[in-house]
């Protein structure tokens, strides 16, 4: 069943962290925009009642994004609550009752993945699942086999068109802007290939630690948390071919092709790091070998990209919070000596602001002779305060039955295929000082000319001819 609008939204894990930080703010925004006007049923096992859930929603909004009195009041009017154990069929009978005559509910599983199977089975048995959609959160499984198992469970109760795998990076406008830049500008196609690009770097830096999520994070690590999903989505947008049509499957077909062309990561192409102090976090093992930083080098064996290394780096407790792509151009066959060619690049910043910058060389204005500098031509804007947040966008899309912003199973499996072997090898994890750019050992996985660190001004570097 496709293309109908869900007539109720159920979210499991209503008292949890994700609901608190992301879901309530998105629900309020949806209500405010007039995009949500159906019952919203929270489910959890907390011994709570509806008033307690409402209070939690209020607190969440006050801390995350701000409470809008009118929208909040409407949201409160839509909220329902079912308390109970996910194992217990009576929880689902109570849910069916709360759903009243809803025929097309969307069930959002904002719960730990170990509970997915139970909830999906109970939904199917209780008649809450018929005509319904299911929305699950990344990471989808923790390796290839568990992802396949999870998929089997989901497909046992729902059709593929009714399964929505959330990777909220797909809901970010900045991530989609990469496609707009590539496919709305004819000039971009001319240089966006192995003939002109020497290397591509993707950096996702966060200046904070695990923010009380030590228990989850220690079981997950950077590669499973953000590389295998969020950053591979960015990679796919950067490297994919233009889709032949604009429907969701044509776009997702091209993304899967990128991953199919990516070689499995080898040990020599990975550096894992852990910030000092991580092992003191709540929920983290004292001898934890989990990475809070990872740098990988990937090869894409496609017609467009063969021979161009792609570097991905992500970490917690780095010097800044920023997601940025830098593509370095090859040096031209110029008469100018190589040592003077300081470098051209394309820089796409995805957050906190959205920037497209082209780094170009020109004669340095305040120097004599053949002195070159790189200056950036830049288009940049900060997201508007009323812009849709990624969660708002993906929840709305799932309720509309539009799969474009969701990961498809074949994509998820390819992503695991790329990272799984090296994840299972217990590669060393090197310590790094908080607020630095990761461990010293990163030298092994570093683009030619070094990593471009967001915030460190590379533009206006001047190289001049030696006297
Ligand atoms: C989540 C990860 O999926 O994405 C977090 O679990 C990470 O560890 C977060 O901080 C980053 O997303 P955003 O939208 O806040 O940049």
SSE topology sketch:
Elements: E1 8-12, H1 17-32, E2 40-44, H2 50-63, H3 69-78, E3 79-83, H4 89-99, E4 105-109, H5 116-126, E5 133-137, H6 144-157, E6 163-166, H7 173-184, H8 186-191, E7 197-205, H9 214-218, H10 221-239, H11 248-260, E8 270-275, E9 293-299, E10 309-315, E11 322-329, E12 345-351, E13 354-363, E14 371-381, H12 390-400, E15 406-407, H13 409-423, E16 429-432, E17 462-464
Parallel strand pairs: 1-2, 1-4, 2-3, 4-5, 5-6, 7-10, 8-16
Antiparallel strand pairs: 6-15, 7-11, 8-9, 9-10, 11-12, 12-13, 13-14, 14-17
Helix pairs in contact: 1-2, 1-3, 1-12, 4-5, 5-6, 6-13, 7-10, 10-11, 10-13, 11-13
The chain binds 6-O-phosphono-beta-D-glucopyranose.
6-O-phosphono-beta-D-glucopyranose binds at residues 168, 206, 225-226, 390.
Entry keywords:
single chain, 467 residues, alpha/beta, 10-stranded mixed sheet, 7-stranded mixed sheet, 13 helices, 34% helix, binds 6-O-phosphono-beta-D-glucopyranose
What would your notes on this structure say?
The chain is of the alpha/beta class and 467 residues long. It has helices at residues 17-32, 50-63, 69-78, 89-99, 116-126, 144-157, 173-184, 186-191, 214-218, 221-239, 248-260, 390-400, 409-423, and strands spanning 8-12, 40-44, 79-83, 105-109, 133-137, 163-166, 197-205, 270-275, 293-299, 309-315, 322-329, 345-351, 354-363, 371-381, 406-407, 429-432, 462-464. A hairpin with a 7-residue loop joins strand 13 and strand 14. Helix 10 packs across helix 13. 6-O-phosphono-beta-D-glucopyranose binds at residues 168, 206, 225-226, 390. 6-O-phosphono-beta-D-glucopyranose (BG6) binds at residues 168, 206, 225-226, 390.
């Amino acid at each position: 069943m496709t293309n109908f609008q869900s007539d109720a939204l159920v979210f499991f894990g209503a008292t949890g962290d994700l609901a608190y930080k992301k879901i309530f703010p998105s629900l309020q925004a949806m209500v405010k925009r007039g995009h949500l006007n159906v019952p919203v049923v929270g489910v959890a096992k907390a011994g709570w009642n509806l008033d307690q859930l409402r209070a939690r929603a209020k607190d969440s909004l006050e801390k995350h994004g701000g409470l809008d009195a009118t929208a909040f009041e409407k949201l409160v009017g839509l909220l329902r609550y079912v308390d109970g154990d996910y194992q217990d069929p009576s929880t689902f009978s109570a849910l069916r009752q709360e759903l009243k005559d809803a025929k097309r509910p969307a069930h959002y599983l904002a719960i730990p993945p170990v509970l997915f199977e139970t909830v999906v089975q109970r939904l199917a048995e209780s008649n809450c699942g018929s005509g319904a959609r299911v929305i699950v959160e990344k990471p989808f499984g923790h390796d290839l086999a568990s992802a396949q198992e999870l998929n089997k469970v989901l497909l046992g109760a729902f059709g593929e068109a009714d399964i929505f795998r959330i990777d909220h990076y797909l809901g970010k406008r900045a991530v989609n802007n990469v496609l707009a830049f590539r496919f709305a500008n004819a000039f971009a196609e001319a240089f966006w290939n192995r003939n002109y690009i020497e290397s591509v770097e993707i950096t996702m830096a966060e200046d904070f630690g695990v923010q009380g999520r030590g228990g989850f994070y220690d079981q997950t690590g950077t590669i499973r948390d953000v590389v295998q999903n969020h950053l591979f989505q960015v990679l796919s947008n950067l490297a994919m071919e233009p889709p032949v049509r604009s429907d969701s499957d044509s776009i997702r077909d091209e993304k899967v092709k990128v991953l199919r062309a990516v070689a499995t990561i080898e040990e020599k192409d990975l550096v894992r790091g852990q910030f000092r102090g991580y092992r003191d976090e709540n929920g983290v093992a004292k001898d934890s070998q989990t990475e809070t930083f990872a740098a990988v080098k990937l090869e894409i064996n496609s017609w467009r990209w063969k021979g161009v290394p792609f570097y991905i780096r992500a970490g917690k407790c780095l010097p800044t919070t920023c997601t940025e792509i830098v593509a370095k151009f090859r040096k031209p066959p110029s008469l100018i000596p190589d040592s003077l060619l300081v470098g051209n690049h394309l820089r796409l910043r995805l957050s906190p602001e959205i920037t497209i910058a082209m780094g170009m060389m020109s004669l340095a204005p305040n120097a004599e002779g053949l002195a070159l500098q790189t200056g950036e031509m830049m288009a940049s804007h900060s997201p508007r305060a009323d812009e849709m947040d990624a969660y708002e966008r993906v929840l709305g899309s799932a309720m509309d039955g539009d799969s474009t912003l969701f990961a498809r199973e074949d994509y998820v499996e390819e992503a695991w295929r790329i990272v799984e072997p090296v994840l299972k090898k217990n590669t060393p994890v090197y310590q790094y000082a908080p607020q630095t750019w990761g461990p010293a050992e990163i030298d092994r996985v570093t683009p030619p000319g070094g990593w471009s660190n967001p915030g460190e001004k590379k533009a206006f570097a001047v190289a001049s001819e030696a006297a």
